[in-house]
């Protein structure tokens, strides 16, 4: 009986030791599980926070993308408007350039025509001038001959007058 009692006592102690060991293991595992749960909870909160930030960042990005697209469209529209204005201004200036070229050609033709008329008028005037110069020289020459003849005649008349005067004096 004692042997049996000892044997059972030893089995109880062994079972209690084993139970104690398992209890300690359970407490250690429970503590580890608590740490894991807390870590998991922190990770979930962190994940939620990250998801929130990601969502906000995504929304901000979409807003930025939309604003950038609108700005790009506005700039594109402005550029197209400027291009249209510059294109029409270019056409106007091109037409003006063509008109000025035509005017230049007309003026050059008119200038050449006037130059030709001027040259003809100059030749005509030169001829008239030469003719008038010749007539003047001829007239001057005739007048000089007439003056020379009149002087000669005047000398002769003076001589004759002198003689008549002398004869009158002699007769008196």
Estimate the global geometry from the Cα principal axes: rod-shaped
Helices and strands, in order, run as H
Count every helix, treating DSSP H or I runs of 4 or more residues as helices. Answer: 1
Oligomer: single chain
Total beta strand runs = 0
Helix content: over 70%
What is the radius of gyration computed over CA atoms, rounded to a whole number of angstroms? 70 Å
Strand content: under 5%
List low-pLDDT spans: none
What is the average per-residue confidence, as pLDDT, rounded to a whole number? 96
Number of domains: 1
Structural class: mainly alpha
**Distance separating the two termini:** 235 Å
**Biggest sheet details:** none
Provide a compact summary of the structure.
Keywords: Coiled coil. The chain is mainly alpha-helical.
Topology readout:
Layout: H1 2-171
Structure description:
One of its GO terms (cellular component) is Golgi membrane. This is GOLI4 protein. Keywords: Coiled coil. InterPro entries: GOLIM4. The chain contains one helix and no strands. The model has no long low-confidence stretch (mean pLDDT 96). The protein is mainly α. It has one domain.
Quickly list its features.
single chain, mainly alpha, 172 residues
